Amino acid sequence: MSASTHALYRDKHPVHEELGGYEGAKLGMWLFLATELLLFGVLFALFFIFHGKFLEPFKAAHHTLDKVMGGLNTVVLIVSSLSVALGLDAIQRGRRKLSMICMGITIALAGTFLVVKYFEYSEKFHHHIFPGNATMLKDDAVHEIVSVDDYIARRNMGPEEAADFKKGVNLFFTFYFMMTGVHGLHVIIGMTVLFIIMLKMGGGRYSHWYYTPVENGALYWHLVDLIWIYLFPLFYLIS
Question: pTM surpassing 0.70?
Answer without folding.
Answer: yes
